[in-house]
Amino acid sequence: MSDVSIRPLTPDDWQAFQALRLEALKAYPHFYCSSYQSEAGYDQEKIKKYWLNGGNKSVFGLFDGDALIGITGVFTWKEDAAGKTGVMGASYIRPSHQGRGYSRLLYQARIDWAMEHKEWSKLVVSHRASNERSRRANQAFGFVLTHKSSHAWPDGTHEDELHYEMDLAARRAHAARQVYSSSQDVF
User: Fold this and answer.
1) For residue 13, which of 55, 67, 64, 56 has the smallest C-alpha distance?
2) Which of 110, 117, 159, 160 has its Cβ near the most Cβ atoms within 10 Å?
3) Which strands form 57-64's sheet, in the order they lie side by side?
């Protein structure tokens, strides 16, 4: 794991991002809310604008040396008109690098970014009911199941979508108490 790192992607990373995103959509069409067919035609400007222009979102790249081996993102959730909620998604790690604990890096990067994005009071994530890997990953980071809904997926199937939430305001307050408590030990 010594050569593996994670960093926010920039518009200059658009080609590597697009290649890996399309690989993910093609290999696992049943895990995403988009499809290979809908994104294969995205041009450079659309990829940069939609995915890599910063603002109220961050897309991270997982690198093994200089090679992009994984992607993930955290975005302002369009279903919250007030803009107080972040949503995590678009995660993928190449099969050759799966099973090595790298998903923890993807989760931690997004949660850390969301903690600094003070406009958000909560962070949500969801997955297809059959996606056990996603369930285990979000549970390891303390997400709480809020509900399930019926969903028609881009691959043509219908399956429940499980929705989870993390209270960022409470997490920030807890972190602040930890810092305050630690500083009291110094005196």
Assistant:
1) 67
2) 110
3) 4-8, 57-64, 67-76, 85-93, 122-128, 158-167, 144-152
Q: Does residue 5 sit in helix, strand or coil?
A: strand
pTM: 0.88
Give dist(CA 111, CA 74) in Å, integer: 8
Residue 180 makes CB contacts below 8 A (sequence gap 6+) with none
User: d(Cα 110, Cα 8) in Å, to the nearest integer?
Assistant: 10
Tokens 């069409």 identify what position?
Answer: 29
- Give yes or no for a contact between 166 and 175, defined as CB atoms under 8 angstroms apart: no
What's the pLDDT tens digit per position in 30-63? 888 888 999 999 999 999 998 998 888 999 999 9
Distance CA 112, CA 129 (A): 26
Tokens of 92: 């993928």
What is the identity of the amino acid at 48? K
Local structure of 100: helix, strand or coil: coil
